[in-house]
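ingest -> validate -> predict -> emit
validate: passed (alphabet ok, no gaps, 318 aa)
predict: started
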Amino acid sequence: MDTRWIQDFVTLAEVGNFTRAAELRNLSQAAFSRRVQALEHWVGAKLIDRTAFPTRLTAAGERFRTVAIALLDQIADAKAEIGDVPSRNHLRVALPYALATTRLPAWWALWSPDASMSCSVEVGNVHDTVSAFSAGSVDLLICFHQAAHPVQLDKARFERHEIGIELVRPYASKALLESGKAELPGTALRPVPLLMYSPSVYFARVVETAVEDAPRRMIGFKVLEVEMSDVLGHLAQQGLGIAWLPDSSFQGGRLDDLVTLGDGEWDIGVSIVAYRARSNHRRSVAQVWERLVKSSLKVSTASTVKGKASDQRRQSSE
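emit:
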């Protein structure tokens, strides 16, 4: 029996959807289904009621879910105890690159004001960081969260706190805007050039929601696909197209020569959310979590100020 099968099963139990669970586990749906079936063969009982929609657990599946979660917790605890145990004043954090390079320095100054604590950072996409957190390899997970595309973590196992809110908006260079090539929503004769996130990136789904929910249909053509918002921002600076960027991309005066487009029509809000395991009782984790909660209002205020600055920049370009 492969312990990854148990992680697959717990993910499916939390999400209630084979396709979404397979995405979170970075597997094809066929491979994911085979692993769940292999676990059922090993247990000797059907764990998933495949006749129901949405997907739900059988009675045996509900009983095994409790065992599976407890087993994953025990494995994580054993790994921490036997393996590379963090020091008393050391914190392990997983977060996306966009937040590590922009928000983390200010956050860390608030969370460890006396410089008595050290930190190791694991940077990656949503799947990688959530997997590291679920496996107990890191103490805190910080990530973006959007209502239409939630990060599925068991509330019984993990505590959640919203740090702040950002807007993801379409931006273009002044030169592209003045040329008339960035006039949203575009037309059949003059479609707008788009700089988009790679399909596997969380923000790709966020931007897709913003475009689909907008009152007017956008007509454009995809110029480039990139994983990182920083790269998209720099490409937009070069006048190559329109890029959707979060407020954090402009932290510290970065990309200030870009202007926002669309009068909010294609904007979408995302939350910045922190998670910790309820079973993690390390003193350093508790201290940072307490400071994180207390300082979240300041971070939210900073995001609001940035949003107002973006609005002023947009107005000045009109």
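The first strand starts at residue 48 and ends at 49.
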